Each structure stands twice: as structure tokens, then as C-alpha cells.
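Propose amino acids for all 87 sites.
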């Protein structure tokens, strides 16, 4: 989120994409450096709120394929998506 805000600010003040890239990457390095200097050891991202990302596995792909054979996704005029079983 912070990077998006920085990118938006750079665009608003007239920075080019190249200048923005340099500034954002510099600020990212500075932020991470500050965290490590403050005692952080973990290099992984912190947990985030919201729904976790799904992982693509062979089992998940097979499940979707199986359901896809018997289900149709329809979209009404008001863009509400609905599923309907063919059986």
C-alpha cells in the first residue's frame, strides 16, 4: 500500500516512471534496512488481514475441472454472477 501511495505522489509531482522506480526502490530499501537495524530477523512478509491467497495444487485443479463439467456460470444484466447445475 505504501508503495502505491509513493507512486501516486511521484506521478502527481511530475516524476517520470524511471525516476519513480528509483525513488520507490530506494524508499523500500531504506524501510527494510531500518527494520533490520531495529532488530527484525525475519525476511518474510508480515501476516496480512483478509482472505489468504489460494494455492494452486493438482487436487484444486482437478476439483475445479470436475465442477466445471457440471456447472455453468451465467452473468445477468446487472453483472451479478450466478452458477447453475446442468444435471
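Proposal:
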Amino acid at each position: 500500500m505504501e508503495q502505491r501511495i509513493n507512486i501516486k505522489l511521484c506521478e502527481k509531482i511530475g516524476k517520470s516512471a524511471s525516476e519513480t522506480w528509483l525513488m520507490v526502490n530506494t524508499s523500500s530499501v531504506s524501510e527494510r534496512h531500518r527494520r533490520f537495524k531495529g532488530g527484525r530477523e525475519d525476511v518474510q512478509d508480515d501476516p496480512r488481514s483478509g482472505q489468504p491467497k489460494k494455492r494452486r495444487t493438482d487436487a484444486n485443479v482437478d476439483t475445479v475441472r470436475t465442477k466445471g463439467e457440471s456447472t455453468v456460470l451465467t452473468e445477468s444484466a446487472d453483472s451479478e454472477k450466478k452458477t447453475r447445475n446442468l444435471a
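Helices lie at 2-12, 17-37, 58-70. Strands lie at 71-75, 81-85.
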